Amino acid sequence: MTTIKKADLIQSVADALQFISYYHPADYIRALGRAYEREQSAAAKDAIAQILSNSRMCAEGHRPICQDTGIVNVFVKVGMDVRFDFNTSFEDAINEGVRRAYLDPDNKLRASVLDESDFGRKNTKDNTPAVISVQLVPGDKVEIDVAAKGGGSEAKAKFAMLNPSDSIADWVVKTVPSMGAGWCPPGMLGIGIGGTAEKAMLLAKESLMESIDMAELKTRGAKTAVEKLRVELYDRVNALGIGAQGLGGLSTVLDVKIRTYPAHAANRPVAMIPNCAATRHAHFVLDGSGPAEFEEPKLSDWPNVTWKPDASSKPVDLNKLNKEEVASWKPGQRLLLSGKLLTGRDAAHKRIQEFLEQKKPLPVDFRNRVIYYVGPVDPVRDEVVGPAGPTTSTRMDKFTDMMLGGTGLIAMVGKAERGPAAIESIHKHKAAYLMAVGGAAYLVSKAIRKSKVLAFEDLGMEAIYEFEVKDMPVTVAVDANGTSVHTTGPAEWSKKIVELKLPVTAA
Known about the structure:
The protein is α/β, with parallel strands linked by helices. It is 32% helix and 24% strand. The strands form five sheets. The chain has a five-stranded mixed β-barrel.
């Protein structure tokens, strides 16, 4: 009988989470490299170049791929011939591994988990607890998959209880556009079919632990009904033209994974969960011989892609910015921001709203300023700030009119599209929304030269910071006339894919 030591389990979980924080899975890098080579959309190609460059930088610097270092998901298969050398909670041991990983002083990860027990949403400070699923199986080993699931992609999870006669493929193709780009494509779609509502969701999440093999599948041809559906969905979703970061292009998904389970005759549960450009997961086995070991990838595994600013990018001095200059920006134009940039996201916006409602003076002057929707990772060693990529901007849509109309703010920086109400407000106030690339957090952080907290320090990573930046790359996503590239880009590329019969080949 195999004996698994508590110390080995804890160490293995901690090591796995550190490993996946800065190493993309090799299959993802290969697939994204192929997507970069065939991409014909200049905006999408630039975004993919940033993601690939960021990935290599993180591998070299052992720093997080994304500032959102995720909520931990753990899938465990325990062999029935295994015994443990401890009688405390198995979940407590897993969570101790999570705690050690996220508080590691050499690569401290962002604590994003909030306690909901009293609905006060207080940060647990160490990213515990993990979401843990355990199965008992034959054998004398323990197999574990760990994943760090970002909030942006998790927020786009979808579920439907279809009628037995409904088309799963049609539901997926209809639903994907409703997810917007907040899940940071190109990534993967995990689909669970069958069981009950909660089982379908679990199947979808588990499927995302599988390796990307769409290129191999399309080369050899689909042999089963599940494989045929995977290929159909891959082709149809990519034909939507959503593209990298929702800017329009050939690659929206790199693979589609499907797991099934028997279901009640009256039901057809279908769940869909995307994995983002910061795909992070690892598999390891404990056999009683010690903690798991993880083989570092070779830097030669990364494609030879180094992002550089587009020659036509326009330098912008944030310290001298005014509404007239903002109104001159064009949709899709690339900018390089330099100067003082404010930050703030959900909690800060809510507190600003309270100040305005109570007619209290704001602690920060927002007039003619730009705010960046970000919750950075804490710095280590000589860093000014840790990885600091954008968060999903639609969460701030309900505050947009308040900020533009009540504070003097003239532009915002975030990730993915804005909703109709935010776009209307941007148009009304002749402001602008700028998009930074989700999945390029470490690369973006290198543009930040100074950082200090200006207000709401108790909010931690959600406090209002002032960054001093130099040539921070952004794209004009919504201009002062209310034109959104997240509408025009996919519309243009879905049409091009059909009219020009562009190949949607496997990544």
